[in-house]
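Sharing a chain and its predicted structure for anyone who wants a worked example. Both blocks are below, sequence first, tokens second.
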Amino acid sequence: MNEEYDVFPLVLEMAKRRCLYAPKRISRVDLMRSLGITAWRLNKLLRYAEDEGYIITRKYGRTIYYKISERGRSLLEKFLDELKVVLEEDRVIALRGKVVSGLGEGAVYMSIPEYKRSFVEILGYEPYPGTLNIRLDHESVLARDNLRNNSVGYRIEGFEIGGKKYGGLTVYKAIINSKDKAVEGAILDLDITKHGNDILEIIAPVKLREELKLKDGDEVIVEVWL
């Protein structure tokens, strides 16, 4: 028997029935149905859980009451901590790539007041007037597509000024990591761009090349918040 993983569903089910706080009477038939196991399997789990100190049983006449012990509570807390780690990791998509020279598209967006106002509203700061460009590896290109399909991010719709149309874009908050340092920033997903799908444009309140001491070819990891 794999001790913790085998007994955890039983302890969790008892916790749902308020056995953490006081001894409770539980129908074995209800436990069997909830856990989807046989009477033989349930009896084995109950004996094991009691012998190993995960639960405490009390018998009053023919009625049995169950309470989760301190060890059982610790087991629940351990699994909770593990789930938190998994769920928090799933809230971040890591994109990897290498620094490349850009085409100056980002600087155009940084220079137009309508875009700048939107960036300040979304990010809480006015970005440096330029972008850092990285060329994503193949796996990160696929992850970027998944990011788009999940419809997360902050949308800035296109607009028109003096008869000239400006394209929309989506902003994703992110952490930009170099070898020795990390900076809070964001990535831009432009509706209209001359770049291929493998080029990622990144903005930040500072000039990233200088702040992170980057040059073309250096590797960067961008953690995008979901």
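Comments welcome. The CA atoms of residues 23 and 39 lie 22 Å apart.
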